[in-house]
Structures are given as structure tokens and as C-alpha cells.
Design brief:
By secondary structure, this protein is α/β, with parallel strands linked by helices. The chain has three domains: 179 residues, 3-Layer(aba) Sandwich (Alpha-D-Glucose-1,6-Bisphosphate, Chain A, domain 3), CATH 3.40.120.10; 223 residues, Alpha-D-Glucose-1,6-Bisphosphate, Chain A, domain 3, CATH 3.40.120.10; 134 residues, 2-Layer Sandwich (TATA-Binding Protein), CATH 3.30.310.50. The protein has 18 helices and 27 strands. The strands form six sheets. It has a seven-stranded mixed β-sheet with strand order 2-6-5-3-4-9-8, sandwiched between helices. Helix 8 links the parallel strand 10 and strand 11. The longest helix has 15 residues. Bound molecules: alpha-D-glucose-1-phosphate-6-vanadate and cobalt (II) ion. Cobalt (II) ion binds next to loops.
Length: 542
């Protein structure tokens, strides 16, 4: 039976960089998740009888909200729901399912790299029919609706047996529980030269992949061990756990340190990689070398033609504004378009749909291509392996020869997590107030060339997104960028992005933090971070 339930609005349901993210106790309040899901449906047109894909990263509360979303989809008139077995579906695999089965859209339950558990984070994101995160036009409409909502529709029905592959009915709506790995693995086989990677591995090349007890485990196990023949045990922490084993499923040098240390041992594996909670991020390490995500984008772009999917070349490369400019140098050499977008994958959707960009990337361990409309962790790992197999070189050789050709961009992000919201906001607004006075000012050997608050003009639909981060550009090409996170769930997180370009190959083996020390000092000087936040050091340095 379909029921209409009266409700009252919550005032805090504005989607952030990637959907609505809150602590589980917030989401578990009566009507909270229902209000948001109904606000999503109320902001869409024309889904009657169409298909909705639902999946999540397996974190605590995933199964509860999946059942709710299925019953609400049935009550709101969707014709069919496709849901991953066990409620599991990585973000890139969800994007693929939406596209492949021409679904109307999808609901992805994830808080990505944030920890999971009864008192940790949860999230809901809506993806549109192109498989990508809803653009701002839709997320704004969802927020407006959430402030007025007074009822939602849901049906009384038994829970769907999520662990059983098959087809079930909820009222007159069909629910298909599918194997979350099969279609995704098939797509990867189409894009890459699996034979070449198999030969590389059979020749003794050793891989260590850390799924961080999150959603990528089943995908990596099937692809890396079963299909590519890596030894059993190459994929670690491959069982998705509701609390990610108590860790942050965040693939970086802080949270994937064990893997990093293993690869750095003289007898360690040749290649290490890790992915995040929902499978869209990646970290790449080789013997003696950590590849920064910004470098990874540039290197993948310069070598993508070695993989079957990209052998015809790239249309263009897009990067988020805080991502280093290393990829721009590749685009310029290839004579293809370079695009700079605000943070968040939703801004790449139009460029990919319009065929302007083929590869996209973010400094936050996110890379992807036009094969789906999300960043894709395993895809990046496989493209790296395909390139290594084709070049017959190590990660170290590929990276250092890239630097020799294009110059090296030293890059780091300093995060100040869970600082006071008021302090963070006033730090940013005072920086904004200073911008006009900065050009021409000097600090030690740095001279400011330009300073602005980044605004993006979408070249496809003409939409404008303002206040996307403060950038200070120096005459020598260095940059410092400040912005506040849109994915955190407690207080505010200040991100400071630091970048220095070094064309001279004799200076390519320096320590990153040391090389950036002048810029770090400038950031403190101009923003007064220690005084305002009460922190004398960042929480996380990546
Ligand atoms: C962060 C990253 C951003 C990424 C977003 C979602 O956002 O900086 O690059 O797109 O997370 O990634 P923010 O607003 O906190 O800086 V994921 O893997 O959390 O979906
Ligand atoms: Co993620």
C-alpha cells in the first residue's frame, strides 16, 4: 500500500561538493533521509515508469536507506529499480549501470573517504541520466525543495532480499538485484589491453592493492587477481566492512601508509595502489616514488594513447582549479583543450558529454575519463598498468622521464580539519577582501601576479559558479589556493593548496615540503592560519 506521510522540513539539507553528507545520527532522525530522497524526486521530471539505479559503498546504514529508497521509488512511480547485490555498488560502477541500461538516474549512498559506523558519516547523492553527479541546477532545486517539503510517499512492503540476485516486486515496481562487478569488469576489459597486463604480471611484476575494507574489494579481487592473474593476496582488505575496519577509507600517504611502506621496502612490490570508500579515488605508488594525483593526471594524459580505448588520442584534458597545472603542459604539447573547473566531479559532466574533454582529474586522488561520468579508482590503476606494460618501464622511470620532458610541479595540500566554522568563514572573507590589493606585492622572493576568487563559466551551458576558491598566482608560476571543504561533517575544513613549477631537471629530486616552504610561509603570512584556527600545523598533509 502506498502511503503519504506528513513531515516538516530540516534546514540543513544543502548538498555539498558531492551530495548530502552528515553523521549517521543526523540521517537516522525520523523522516530525515525520506525528506531528502523525496526532495530529490520532487526536483525531477518525467521519471514515471523509468529505471532508477541504487547502490552504495556498504557503510553502516547503507542497507536501511536502500530499503527506504526502494519503497519510495515504488511509491513515486518509478517503473524499475536496479540495485547492487548486498547494496554494494561502487560510484563508477553505478555511473556505468545508469549509462549502460539507460536508467533515468541513480541514488548513490556514500560518504566516500569519510569514516563509517554508527557515529560516523553517511551520504546520499543523486546522479542524472548521463551517469554523472547532478549539476548545481538540480542540487540547488533539491535544497530549495527540502526547505518546503511537507509530505513524502512510501509504500508498506517487505524488505527486498538484497543478498539474492534476482527480480522481485515492490507494489507494481520491479526490483532487480544484480551482480555489481560483472558489467564494470566487462567495461574495463573493453578499455584496456588485459593481455599485455597479464604478460607483465606473469613476468614477475608484483602488485599490492589496498581496498581499505571498502567497496572496491570485490572489483579489485575479480579484475586484478582473477582476470589479470596477480597472485592471491595482491588485493588486501578486500571485504567491504560497515566501519571500514575503523579506518578512514582514504587512499593517501596518511591513511594508506602501511601499503606505502610495503612498496618502499627494497623487496616490496613493484606497484602499489589504493582506493577509497566508494571506489572513485586512487593512490598510485611505485618503488621509490609516490605519484601525486596531479602528476598522475598529466602522466596518464601524456600516455593514454598506449591503451586501446584512447589510441585515437584525447579531445581535451580537464582538471579542477586546485589541481596542479602539470596537465595543462601536456594539453598544450598535444595541441588539445585544457579546462579548469571548480572542485567536484559534477563540473566535468558537460565537458565530457560535449566531447570537449576525454580525461579529467582532481588533486584529491581522483582521475577518470569519458567511459563513465564519475572519477574511477580502478580505472586509473588499470590505465597505469596498461602504460607500464606498453612502455616496459617502472613507475619511477615513467614519472621521472615525464618531469624531464615537461618539468616537475611540486605540489602539496595542507588540510586543517574540524576547525571552528566562524573562524574559517572569517579567514576566507578577509582573504577575499584583500585580493584587489595583492597584485604587485612581494614576500621574500615571491611577487604576486594575480589574485582572485575563482568563478567558472561553463563553456557548454553558460552557467556561472562563483566563489570556488581564492587563488594567488605568482610571477614565477607558483600558486597558493585556499578553499573550504564541501564534504566535511564537523565544523569546517580549510584546504591550502601549494604548487611550484621547476623546469630544471637537476632540481627534480628535492623534498616536496622543503621546496614549498616559501609558499607555506606565504600562506601563513597572508591568511594568519595559526592565529585564526588555533592550529600550528595542518591535520593532514597530502
Ligand atoms: C573533496 C575533494 C574533491 C572531491 C570531493 C568528492 O571535496 O577535495 O576534489 O571531488 O571530495 O570526492 P571537498 O569539498 O571536501 O574539498 V569523494 O571521493 O568524497 O566523492
Ligand atoms: Co570517493
Amino acid at each position: 500500500m502506498i502511503r503519504t506521510i506528513s513531515t516538516t522540513p530540516f534546514d540543513d539539507q544543502r548538498p555539498g561538493t558531492s551530495g548530502l553528507r552528515k553523521k549517521v545520527p543526523t540521517f537516522a532522525q525520523p523522516h530525515y533521509a525520506e525528506n531528502f530522497i523525496q526532495s530529490v524526486f520532487d526536483s525531477l521530471d518525467g521519471f514515471q515508469g523509468k529505471t532508477l539505479v541504487i547502490g552504495g559503498d556498504g557503510r553502516y546504514f547503507n542497507r536501511t536507506v536502500i530499503q527506504t529508497a526502494i519503497k519510495m521509488a515504488a511509491a513515486n512511480g518509478f517503473g524499475k529499480v536496479m540495485v547492487g547485490q548486498g547494496g554494494i555498488l561502487s560510484t563508477p560502477a553505478a555511473s556505468n549501470m545508469i549509462r549502460k541500461y539507460e536508467a533515468f538516474g541513480g541514488i548513490i549512498l556514500s560518504a566516500s573517504h569519510n569514516p563509517g559506523g554508527p557515529n560516523e558519516d553517511f551520504g546520499i547523492k543523486y546522479n542524472a541520466g548521463n551517469g554523472g553527479p547532478a549539476p548545481e541546477r538540480i542540487t540547488d532545486a533539491i535544497f530549495e525543495r527540502s526547505k518546503l517539503i511537507d509530505r513524502y510517499r512510501i509504500c508498506d512492503a517487505d524488505d527486498v532480499p538484497l543478498d539474492k540476485i534476482g527480480t522481485f516486486m515492490v507494489e507494481s515496481m520491479e526490483v532487480e538485484v544484480f551482480d555489481p562487478v560483472a558489467d564494470y569488469a566487462a567495461l574495463m576489459e573493453e578499455l584496456f589491453d588485459f593481455d599485455a597486463i597479464r604478460t607483465l604480471i606473469a613476468g614477475g611484476f608484483r602488485i599490492a592493492f589496498d581496498a581499505m575494507s571498502a567497496v572496491t574489494g570485490p572489483y579489485a579481487k575479480e579484475i586484478i587477481e582473477n582476470r589479470l592473474g596477480a597472485a592471491e593476496g595482491s588485493v588486501r582488505n578486500f571485504v567491504p566492512l560497515e566501519d571500514f575496519g575503523g579506518h578512514h577509507p582514504d587512499p593517501n600517504l596518511v591513511h594508506a601508509k602501511v601499503l606505502y611502506d610495503d612498496v618502499m621496502r627494497p623487496d616490496g612490490p613493484d606497484f602499489g595502489a589504493a582506493s577509497d570508500g566508494d571506489g572513485d579515488r586512487n593512490m598510485i605508488v611505485g618503488k621509490q616514488i609516490f605519484v601525486t594525483p596531479s602528476d598522475s593526471l598529466a602522466i596518464l594524459a601524456a600516455n593514454a594513447h598506449l591503451a586501446p580505448a584512447y589510441k585515437g588520442g584525447l579531445a581535451g584534458i580537464a582538471r579542477s582549479m586546485p589541481t596542479s597545472q602539470a596537465a595543462d603542459k601536456v594539453a598544450s604539447k598535444l595541441g588539445i583543450g585544457a579546462y579548469e573547473t571548480p572542485t567536484g566531479w559534477k563540473f566535468f559532466g558537460n565537458l565530457l558529454d560535449a566531447g570537449k574533454a576525454t580525461l579529467c582529474g582532481e588533486e584529491s586522488f581522483g582521475t577518470g575519463s569519458n567511459h563513465v561520468r564519475e572519477k574511477d579508482g580502478l580505472w586509473a590503476v588499470l590505465l597505469w598498468l596498461n602504460i607500464l606494460a606498453a612502455r616496459g618501464e617502472s613507475v619511477y622511470e615513467v614519472v621521472t622521464s615525464h618531469w624531464a620532458e615537461f618539468g616537475r610541479t611540486y605540489y602539496s595540500r595542507h588540510d586543517y580539519e574540524a576547525i571552528e566554522t566562524d573562524a574559517a568563514n572569517s579567514l576566507m572573507s578577509e582573504l577575499r577582501n584583500k585580493l584587489a590589493t595583492l597584485p604587485g606585492t612581494k614576500f621574500e622572493d615571491l611577487t604576486v601576479a594575480k589574485a582572485d576568487d575563482f568563478a567558472y563559466h561553463d563553456p557548454v551551458d553558460g552557467s556561472v559558479s562563483k566563489h570556488q576558491g581564492v587563488r594567488i598566482l605568482f610571477e614565477n608560476g607558483s600558486r597558493v589556493v585556499f578553499r573550504l571543504s564541501g564534504t566535511g561533517t564537523s565544523g569546517a575544513t580549510l584546504r591550502v593548496y601549494l604548487e611550484h613549477y621547476e623546469p630544471d631537471a637537476s632540481k627534480h629530486e628535492q623534498d616536496t615540503q622543503g621546496t614549498l616552504s616559501g609558499l607555506i610561509a606565504y600562506a601563513e603570512h597572508i591568511a594568519g592560519i595559526a592565529e585564526r584556527t588555533g592550529r600550528d600545523a595542518p591535520t593532514v598533509i597530502t
